[in-house]
Amino acid sequence: MRNTLDVAKYLLGKELVHIIEKQITSGLIVEVEAYIGPGDSASHAYQGKRTPRTRIQYEIGGKAYVYQIYGLHYCFNVVTQKEDLPEVVLVRALQPLQGVEIMEKRRSFKNNNRFELTNGPGKLCQAMAIDKSCYGVDLCGSKLYIREAKVKIPKHIAVSKRINIEYARNAKNFPWRFYLKNNLYVSKP
DNA sequence: ACATGGATGCTT
DNA sequence: AGCATCCATGTC
Question: Record's Pfam families (predicted)?
Answer without folding.
Answer: Pur_DNA_glyco (PF02245)
